[in-house]
DNA sequence: TAGGCCATCTGGTCCT
DNA sequence: AGGACCAGATGGCCTA
């Protein structure tokens, strides 16, 4: 399965702080650019009063009404709500794009062939988890073979020491059944066998003798 | 056509 | 008040 081969704005996102994607509509743009009515400045008549220099009077009026925000008409309220919602939507979209950018960066450092289908989000996370685990084990075993240390037994569960169960894995994320270890999941996907070919990604390579 | 994946919208909650 | 984060809902696209 190749998720949306065309029209994936998230893939093109490279910079987090910039606006990496076209904002949906011009209506939305104007709504976002033009800041919503600020409660401290008030709207409509309030602005006129302040602009004409009647600040103390305005302040008294506000105090009498019991707060910074003056009551608005129903239409003004709904307009403000819509404006806030659109701004929130825009931020949320941006946030998700940033998240996808990070995910793409992660895909970029994982060992897959260029012509492979793009890993899904969950596959990317699980693949990365197992990959890190395998690399950690590689380093550990290399250290022990170099310095003749005792073989590590107690920390084989998870590289970060966290609960392997978080990833649906057992003692070894690589050999876990059911969840997406690179070996299993990618074999399930036609055209994605290649990433599983490295020795450290095969369940049979748990001895890690292949890549020492 | 069903199911998987994804982007987006939305309302709620927490924090500053 | 406003932003960040989250989870649920929804609809589109694609593949088996």
TrEMBL record:
Question: Which sequence ranges form a coiled-coil region, renumbered to this chain?
Answer: none
Family annotation (InterPro entries): bHLH_dom, bHLH_transcription_factors, HLH_DNA-bd_sf, Ngn3_bHLH
- Compositional bias (Basic residues) at which positions? 57-70, 79-88
Q: Please give the residue ranges the record annotates as the region Disordered.
A: 1-25, 57-97, 153-197
Record Pfam families: HLH
Q: What's an example GO BP annotation here?
A: positive regulation of transcription by RNA polymerase II
Q: Which UniProt keywords apply?
A: Activator, Developmental protein, Differentiation, DNA-binding, Neurogenesis, Nucleus, Transcription, Transcription regulation
Question: GO molecular function: any one?
Answer: protein dimerization activity
In terms of CDD domains, this protein maps to:
bHLH_TS_NGN3_ATOH5
Q: Which GO terms describe its cellular component?
A: nucleus
User: Is this entry keyworded Zinc?
Assistant: no
Q: What is this protein called?
A: Neurogenin-3
Gene (UniProt): NEUROG3
């Amino acid at each position: 399965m190749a998720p949306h081969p065309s029209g994936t704005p998230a893939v093109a996102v490279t910079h987090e702080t910039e606006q990496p994607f076209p904002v949906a509509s011009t209506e939305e743009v104007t709504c976002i650019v033009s800041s919503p009515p600020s409660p401290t400045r008030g709207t409509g008549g309030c602005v006129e009063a302040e602009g004409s220099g009647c600040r103390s009077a305005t302040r008294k009026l506000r105090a009498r009404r019991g707060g910074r925000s003056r009551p608005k008409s129903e239409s003004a309220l709904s307009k403000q709500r819509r404006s806030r919602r659109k701004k929130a939507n825009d931020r949320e979209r941006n946030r998700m794009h940033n998240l996808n950018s990070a995910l793409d960066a992660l895909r970029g450092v994982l060992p897959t062939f260029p012509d492979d289908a793009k890993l899904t989000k969950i596959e990317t996370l699980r693949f990365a988890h197992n990959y890190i685990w395998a690399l950690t084990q590689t380093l550990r075993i290399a250290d022990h073979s170099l310095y003749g240390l005792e073989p590590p037994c107690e920390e084989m569960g998870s590289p970060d020491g966290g609960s392997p169960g978080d990833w649906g894995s057992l003692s070894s994320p690589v050999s876990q059944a059911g969840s997406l270890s690179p070996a299993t999941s990618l074999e399930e996907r036609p055209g994605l066998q290649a990433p599983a070919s490295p020795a450290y990604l095969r369940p049979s390579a748990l001895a890690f003798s292949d890549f020492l």
